[in-house]
Design goal:
alpha+beta; 4 helices
Length: 330
């Protein structure tokens, strides 16, 4: 019986030991992916910001500017692209909607971002765009890869339509979560006018005729949970200017928008809670289960060897029969 038990334990030990690397290096890269139907929204605010009044063409201080960002997965488009791409694809339709303190629209910029569901690398296909302009992205946007590393990444900037390094600056703790802090600086760059302008009758084409151009710079900051690659918090020190042309009445430039854009508190709380939940799922496949199965396999192997050794130990010799002396008759 001991030998049979030791063989069963040995088989279980081999199974769990083999399952450990399979989970980490085979199952995880295939199971960890962004769902194609994901929907998420985010509200950011810039308090005490500077905003251009297009009626007077003068910049003024306002109590708050609100930016609503939405990302919606297009499942049908993703399936269509997968047929030719040969891999799992996610298509995000994004919208960045900026409104002033009166609730009126300041700008509205749509995007279509197509990327690999597992690695977050861009996938180039028809429809990839920013504000109606076709683009070919290099680098990530919105989300970092699963198991984010302590290194610089290439990050796409939608305003300039260019890719620039986003630098790893160190490890921190944010709301009880270990995060990697990344920062990217986009220098002053000439960028297109939004197709949808806040004042009726003003269009990018009409502004272009005046010779006025739009310039932009930002310092982008992300605090990223490394297991999921999801930012738990982000902010931008954002500035836009209109420069030159007859529209400014002889002025060299005027501020169109300037403010420190930060996530709203309620969205910080919900994002941190969601990331903590998803972090547990990722760690189950990359750490908890692989190390647990490996430890279980080693324990079962040790128990199997112990029972095998007990089974091979020579038996104790049988006790010798001591003859009972017969009584001596007188």
């Amino acid at each position: 019986m001991r030998r049979k038990a030791s063989l069963v334990l040995l088989a279980c030990a081999v199974f769990f030991a083999a399952l450990s690397p399979l989970l980490r290096w085979y199952a995880f890269p295939r199971l960890a992916k962004i769902p194609p139907n994901q929907y998420q929204d985010m509200v950011l605010v810039a308090k005490n910001a500077t905003l251009l009044d297009y009626g007077t063409m003068k910049a003024k201080k306002v109590p708050q500017v609100t930016i609503v960002q939405t990302l919606k997965g297009d499942v049908a488009a993703a399936k269509k692209i997968e047929k030719t791409a040969g891999r799992d694809v996610v298509v995000w339709d994004g919208l960045s909607y900026v409104q002033g303190p009166d609730g009126k629209m300041v700008s509205e910029i749509p995007e279509r971002y197509i990327f690999d569901a597992h690695s977050q690398e861009p996938v180039h296909a028809t429809g990839e765009m920013v504000d109606g302009d076709p683009v070919t992205r290099d680098g990530i946007e919105f989300k970092f890869p699963f198991l984010t590393e302590k290194r610089d990444y290439e990050y796409f900037d939608a305003q300039t339509r260019t890719t620039n390094p986003i630098h790893y600056k160190g490890t921190q703790t944010f709301r009880g979560v270990k995060v990697y802090y990344f920062e990217q600086t986009i220098p002053w760059t000439k960028v297109p006018m939004p197709r949808k302008m806040p004042v009726q009758g003003i269009t990018p084409e009409s502004i272009a005729k005046t010779g006025t151009t739009r310039w932009y710079t930002t310092v982008r900051r992300f605090w990223v949970e490394p297991a999921t690659g999801a930012p738990v918090y982000g902010e931008e020190i954002h500035k836009e200017e209109l420069r030159g042309g007859t529209l400014l009445g002889g002025r060299a430039k005027v501020t169109a928008f300037a403010g420190d854009v930060k996530m709203r508190e309620d969205y910080i709380e919900s994002t941190v809670a969601l990331v903590k939940h998803n972090r547990t799922l990722v760690l189950m496949l990359t750490s908890y289960l692989p190390w647990g199965f490996l430890s279980l396999g080693i324990a079962l192997l040790a128990l199997s060897l112990y029972l095998e050794a007990r089974g091979r130990r020579p038996a104790d010799p049988a006790p010798a029969d001591t003859p009972v002396p017969e009584p001596v008759s007188a």
